[in-house]
Every structure is written in C-alpha cells, then in structure tokens.
Amino acid sequence: MNPASGLVVVGAQWGDEGKGKLVDLYAAEADAVVRYQGGTNAGHTLVVDGRKTVLHLIPSGILHPGKRCVIGSGCVVDPVALAAEMDELAAAGVTVDPTRLLVSFAAPVILEVHKRLDHAREASAGAAKIGTTGRGIGPAYEDAVSRAAVRMGDLAAPERLRRRVEALLFEKNALLRAHGRPEVTPDEIIAALEPVRERLLPFLGDAGASLAALNADGGRILFEGAQGALLDVWHGTYPFVTSSSTVAGNAAVGAGVGPQLVTDVLGVTKAYATRVGSGPFTTELDDEVGALLRRVGREFGATTGRPRRCGWLDLPALRYAIRINGITRLAVTKLDVLRGIDPVRVCTHHAWRGQPYAVMPGVSDAWPESTPVYESLPGFTEDISAARTPADLPANARRLLAFIEAAVERPIELVSVGPGREENVRFAARTDGAP
Ligand code: GDP
What is the pTM of this model? Predict the structure, then answer.
C-alpha cells in the first residue's frame, strides 16, 4: 500500500469468502484497520501459526502488533460480545487495550432486547425466515435509522442511557408482545450492560477523526468489509440480505471519513460459491459435488456452525459485485478445495425468460427463475497447498484462473491455496494496462 492510501477489502459473493485471511495479510502493510459495517455477525476465521482465531467484531488487524484497529460508527456494537471477544483474544495472547482499539462513540449499541426480537421474528416467520445469525443486528440498525438507538457514547452517561433505554422499550415491548414473547424491563437491559460498561469507556473515541488524522500523516488505512456484496441491503438479493450496506462505497460512510480516503478496492471471491441462510443461489449444487465442496472446504458458518449451501462460481454475480463495489483487482480463495473435481464448472451466463444475461438481472426476486449456463473446464488432481508462484500451479488451475480473469476483466493478484497465512500464490502486478 502507498502512503495515505485506503484499500477496501470486500467480499464479492455472499460472505465467507475468506476476507479475514486477506485482511490479515494486507494488514501487514497498513497502519490502521477499520470495520465499517455489520456487527458480531462477521465470522472471520484466521489461522496464524497453526492457531485458529475467530473474530466477530474486532478488526482482523488486531493480530498484527502495532496496528491501530477501529470500529466505525457504521457498525453496531454489542458491548457484552465485544468484551467477550477481548477476553478470548487475551486468552490467545493478544492484548486489546485502548492504544490498539478505538470504538466509535457514535456506533449504535446492540441490546439484549434486539437479540430477543431477532429470535422472536425468525421463529414467527417459520419457513419464510431470513436466516439471520440472531445477534440482534437487524433490530439495532432499525433503531439507528428510526433515531431511537442507544449509542456507545451513552455508556458514559448512565442517566441518559436509562432514559434512552426506557424510551426504546415502549415500542420494543409492543413488538415482543405481538410475537407472544415476554416483555423486558429497563433494569434488565441496563444490568446486562453494567459488567462491561466502565471497562469499555476508555476505548471510545472519534473514529473518523482518528482515521483522518492518520491519513493526513501519510498513514495507510485498510477498510475491512464484512459479509459480501450480494448481501448488501440496497443491492443484494433482497430481502435475503444483511441489514447494512456491505459495498465498498459504504466504507467511507461507516468509517466516518470522506470518500477520497478510499483509493482502491480488492474483491475476494472463492473459486466456487457458498451461501448461508435463505435466498436465491442459482448455481447451488444439491449433489455429491456440493457435498464435497462443503466437506473439503469446511463450509460451516464461523459464527453459527450452520452448514453452508455450496455451488459453482457465478461469474455474472461476480461481475455485478465488481460493478457495485468498483472492484479493481481480485483475490481468489480456496482454490485447493477444487482438487479432484473434474470437470470444474463456472457459470458464464444466466438464462432468464429465454434471454442470456451476462450480468445478474437487477431485480433480485427474479434471480431464482434464471438458469445458469456453464462452461466446463478440466480439473486438477495435484495438491496445490505448497504452491507459492503461478508456475507451481498445475496448468489446469492456471487455465481456470485465466478464464475467470478474462470473463470479469479484472486481474487476480493473489490466490489462496490453504487456510494458513503463508498459503498463497502471488501474481506479479500486471503491466498490460488492466486496472
Ligand atoms: P470470511 O468471513 O470472509 O473471513 O470467511 P470465513 O472465515 O467464514 O471463511 C473462510 C474459511 O476458509 C476459514 O475457515 C479460513 O481459514 C478458510 N480459508 C481461507 N482461505 C482458504 C483457502 O485458500 N483454502 C482453504 N482450504 N481454506 C481457506
């Protein structure tokens, strides 16, 4: 990364692309890593020195000593979960103190009542459920937009905190009643926060101001996306989306800086596709190949343990993600998982109402109707986990990567061939004028 640059690392699918590993890698070059949206529903799994760490809210940069980590006001923060994550990191030997982590005082707070409402709604929805993680994130964002949220800064002012909680519960309890659930009292909500309230105060500050000052000093900022482009609340497969805007354009908004601070966008995609929860997924495989991808790729949710739906890489969806994020270059993860699958299929078009579409039809409700059109490519049988340069990869693996690059017109700069920090094939920067 160049001085004063800002790189967004964004998921180009439905999340779980391996962004955590990529952010961890690129964090080595950055001065600060900032989360700009989402809450504890992110499940970044990092394997460093053979040790597995799952991060839900704290930026992946925390595993690099000396990097500043920031949770922007575009995130929703569960104070109890945040403190628990700090404890987990401490147990793994990573100290999280206010010199390392800054939490925006303007970030909306996830309260116990939000989690209860999340569960109540999913239970009432039955088969129509969205498949949320049940962490209260959606309800907390609703309160932010309806201007009713408790924010992190309120933790410093107990009387104001109580007033806000009381005002909030008036409507929240009506909703819980409607779902046949017991009401909650302000005392319960405040008591749940009390064990962590004082502890978190030293971490609170002005996230945007801190990042802007860093940028002015030539600092490099890594914006860490959570979930993926196709789960964006405005541009994803609505209504089966997350409750925040996941795309790169929201990075500056959620971090609290101007858009000029974002200078580049790296998109992360698996060599195949997965999706957790409900919603359209045209390239889904219900056969033994899907089962193989799930088993070999260990496709189970990092936060919830839910089995992920698996299928072939969807290039129209990837092109769509490239467009809505302004992705300039790609990282392809989990190529090693395709070992032994022959042929490997890649969806090049969607046929929708008899028409071939090279990009996703814009109306997401129409997506399930479309049928994928595939290109079959020869697979590879070699173990590629030790590959570090393109020449180490089997010809058929290189062919697949070249096919993807040509189809989406973006260069692949890194291919991940295993969960470990060092298990990557790096491609030389292109000189042919590609972005
Ligand atoms: P994220 O939320 O986008 O960071 O994705 P997850 O952490 O949910 O999923 C990525 C999972 O795949 C983690 O368990 C990683 O350790 C693992 N992983 C990442 N890259 C690779 C890879 O190239 N090959 C394999 N086999 N596993 C990988």
Answer: 0.93
